[in-house]
Design brief:
Largest sheet of chain A: 6 strands, mixed
Largest interface: A-B, 72 and 71 residues
Helix content of chain A: 25-40%
Number of domains of chain A: 3
Number of strands of chain A: 17
CATH superfamily of the largest domain in chain A: MoaB/Mog-like domain
Distance between the termini of chain A: 49 Å
Structural class of chain A: alpha/beta
CATH topology of the largest domain in chain A: Molybdenum Cofactor Biosythetic Enzyme, Chain A
Oligomer: homodimer
Number of helices of chain A: 13
Radius of gyration of chain A: 26 Å
CATH class of the largest domain in chain A: Alpha Beta
């Protein structure tokens, strides 16, 4: 089944709004074992006609975003109706809903909004609880040689719920993936390269039939997806669990911060942070998760040597002797953080984010990470992750959170 | 001049790597008054042939990324040569450079790398100091009815320097933009909507000839770009400076954190932070900028009420009386942060990030921001920015940094 994506929106071509739709669709389709064959971005307006005419003969499904709004360059609905020779009729139920929404928000309804309630003959309406313009689904038609067309709203907060609730199940049905017989599972694995994962696992999976694999790597993590018959996915999963026991962040797409939060909640414990080179990225990442106030009461950014001494009680002569970027200092930071915060666990980092400040002995990318915990021997070790400043902060954040995850799972941190 | 972008790369369609090329090109072309007419993403492999054949007749310039590497599905170079009927010849200078790079990195050169040194007849080589495969420029040819073709590497750290140093000047030349007579300027403006900016400024610009405008809005900021003859841009700039004096973050594309850092450096002052609902996002944003250690020595995330009291000295009864999300508490947080850190300025925030925790009186999106400073009356005020949790943190971070910017510029913060 071939799927194409067409994104309409002048703003997407100006470079200030990142096109997140294509990535979102890519990930979702991946779960069905589908790949996007082509993704095209075009400005609002007439171009949609040409792009659809080109795509019709070569694809089975087109996901179109944008161009359903009330302004004069929102013409997707009209162009599709015209290409398929379908009449548009006013859907009173949609119009009533739009009127109702406008009334509740205190806006005045004007005539141009009526267009959003127009529905082409033979189309199914996809409800949009998060906006005015509903989506539309036009099944493939042999008479028109048209593929399945999904007309979806542009704003992500309207698009995503509509896609996951209405479009995804439809695609799954088309793909004849019986959710009872075929399943997919995602393993999120930390610290193992995609290619070594593939080289290691694929020979072991050779005897398992009806199994498809997918890999996606990012900032030290790899998502390994298993798709196929339930028994096949289970057999493969057992191998992954044995082989990568300690490296598996989770069997889901939860980010590492969610996994750490869940582990801490289960144990009824709290963590605190003492950051130098990451400058607050670790604590900010933890607080991205709803419910984080139960597992984090405070965090410290101790950027200067004085702050390390005053806030965390790191002895000034220790810093002078070993330097702020050292195993000894990060150990003292972690233990000091544990003490002053009263938390059950503490994460500390000190390193050289760059672009300046590197030396031959401690080049840009050098970082020491400390993990202290009540009843645990403190871990403190050097790591090396050279990257631009912002990627460095992100990578070190993941690495530090993964080390805490391993400890919370009862795995021994390698010295 | 019509410009299209073709991105090749299977990974771009899987949704794990965000396609940043299109956005980057969009922004750069915007400076030349150009817009991308169409952007297409395709997998590695044969599809490039079809896409180029479609694009040739309708465009003047095609920017192609990816497909120049050594693996078997990297075929852009070969496909283009074939389509234009050009022979490929081995460029010994390129091969020597690749060999040299491999030797320095201690890699073994294998035959497949030779392909990267092949150059189509009539092509100009674009040096790639950051990788092995050079880029290629094939000028438009009437004989082949081909547009200008730029074949560029996929990895952003190779692509961006090559584009800005070699491709952009070429495009500027084609566009006949004499850099001496035509200029562009970017105003980054905070807290004014794009549409009200347009409604206000465009009538005033009506009498200025040879002036093009562009707007890009994001998270409370708007970039207003003026393009045209130097005198026109200057005349328009004067109007913008008078009209939006206090709202202008800068006349560049520097992010707010860079502007705040520069202002603090000029004054030889330091800032500290006391964050509740932003959970470290503000301090992490400030430390994204190289050199931030000179203007930030420490930051505090005081998520729990106890942390606000213990670390910042906020009286427990003040929190009990007014709630942690209140003007009184954020004022005490800011002043406490100033005191315990010894900094010259302090930023404090306390709010309801959601999705839970909202009340009728203080719904999700409510935030109090405090700005304290030596010799300044403390600012503490309620703001409302409803959004999902992560966008809320980003928006509040920008808002708080912008308030500090205004103070550092000598503007009075509105009560």
């Amino acid at each position: 089944m071939r799927v194409e994506v067409v994104n309409t929106g002048t703003e997407l071509l100006l470079g200030k709004v990142v096109n997140t739709h294509a990535g979102y669709f890519g990930q979702e389709l991946f779960k069905l074992g589908l790949r996007i064959q082509r993704q095209t971005t075009i400005p609002d307006g007439d171009e949609i006609r040409t792009v659809l005419a080109e795509a019709f003969p070569r694809t089975d499904v087109i996901l179109i975003t944008g161009g359903l709004g009330p302004t004069s360059d929102d013409i997707t609905r009209e162009v599709v109706a015209e290409m398929l020779g379908r009449e548009l009729h006013l859907d009173q139920a949609i119009l009533d809903e739009i009127n109702d929404l406008f009334r509740r928000r205190g806006y005045k309804m004007n005539r141009s909004n009526d267009r959003q309630a127009m529905v082409p003959e033979g189309a199914f309406v996809l409800d949009n609880p998060n906006g005015t313009a509903p989506g539309l689904y036009l099944p493939a038609s042999e008479a028109d040689s048209s593929p399945h067309l999904f007309l979806l709203p542009g704003p992500p907060r309207e698009l995503k719920p509509m896609f996951s609730e209405l479009v995804y199940p439809k695609l799954a049905e088309m793909r004849q993936v019986e959710l009872s017989s075929s399943v997919w599972r995602n393993f999120r694995i930390y610290g193992v390269g995609e290619s070594s994962l593939a080289a290691d696992l694929e020979p072991r999976f050779a005897s398992i039939e009806n199994l498809e694999l997918g890999y996606c790597a990012r900032l030290g993590e790899v998502d390994l997806r298993l798709i196929g018959l339930e028994a096949s996915v289970e057999a493969a999963s057992r191998i992954v669990r044995i082989e990568y026991r300690e490296d598996i962040i989770g069997e889901s797409e939860d980010p590492i911060e969610q996994v750490v939060l869940d582990l801490l909640l289960q144990r009824g414990e709290v963590v605190s942070t003492a950051e130098s080179c990451t400058g607050g990225q670790i604590v900010s990442t933890l607080t991205n998760v709803s419910g984080s106030s139960a597992i984090l009461h405070q965090g410290y950014v101790t950027y200067s040597n004085e702050a390390k001494t005053e806030i965390l009680g790191v002895p000034a002569d220790l810093i002078e002797k070993h330097g702020a970027v050292s195993e000894e200092v990060v150990r003292a930071m972690a233990e000091g953080c544990l003490r002053v915060s009263g938390a059950d666990h503490a994460i500390a980092v000190s390193g050289v984010a760059g672009p300046t400040g590197g030396t031959e002995e401690k080049p840009v990318g050098t970082v020491y990470i400390g993990i202290a915990g009540k009843g645990f021997e403190t871990y403190a070790k050097r790591h090396f992750t050279p990257a631009d400043r912002i990627s460095f902060k992100l990578r070190v954040t993941r690495l530090a959170l993964d080390l805490l995850r391993r400890r919370l799972c009862g795995f021994v941190l390698e010295k």
